[in-house]
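User: I'm writing a tutorial on reading structure tokens. Could you give me a worked example: one chain, its sequence, then its tokens, then a sentence or two explaining what the tokens reveal?
Assistant: Sure. Here is the example chain.
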Amino acid sequence: MLAVSDINVRYGPIHAVRDVSLSVEAGEIVTIIGANGAGKSTILKTLVGLLRTTTGDIRLEGESLAVLTPAAIVTRGIALVPEGRRVFPRLSVLDNLLLGGYGKPRQQIHHMLSRVFEMFPRLRERKPQLAGTLSGGEQQMLAIGRGLMSQPRLLLLDEPSMGLAPLLVQQIFETILQINDDGTTILLVEQNAHMALAIADRAYVLETGTIVLTGNPEELSANRQIRTAYLGK
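And here are its predicted structure tokens:
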């Protein structure tokens, strides 16, 4: 479905991502784990066109995304739920969700609103409430719901557990599994390696902008280097 081939990304003189190649097959949950500053968020931003590669290629079902605008990439079926939620604090919950479905036919928007409210009943209760007054967990629900409003085939999740209490983290990861079960492919960036590896089909380990290991969760969980660096064992 998604094929990333030898991409390099720079912030001016900083070489943030180095010769990264990865793939995501339809129906999978694939996770990228790594420390702060490893380049995980940079990869996701590059996939949706917010950053550009200096070399390499990104293809979705064979089509190159390299020259497409972020808006065009969304229409191809990719949505990003960014790190830190990034909801529009002065807009209502409902308006945040409607922005996620911008450009979709009214019938599809109605369908997706129903799906989001079924998944997150708390958002239905808070439709008129300003997003900035929600709790951190509610804002994360809203950010995921907003991403789903575009009906993505591939959902990119950037640190969905960040800053949340353990109980809410569990709920968010259960929701990720539900979204995947409903047919959405997921690429997950996550510092909580325990949780990420528990739900993923495959995983990549990123260090200072470079993929250093890849494999299934069982293989990586058994790796002494990974256990020491990311699992606290």
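What the tokens reveal: The chain is about 40% helix and 25% strand. The beta strands are 2-11, 14-24, 29-33, 55-60, 63-64, 78-81, 154-158, 185-189, 202-207, 210-215.
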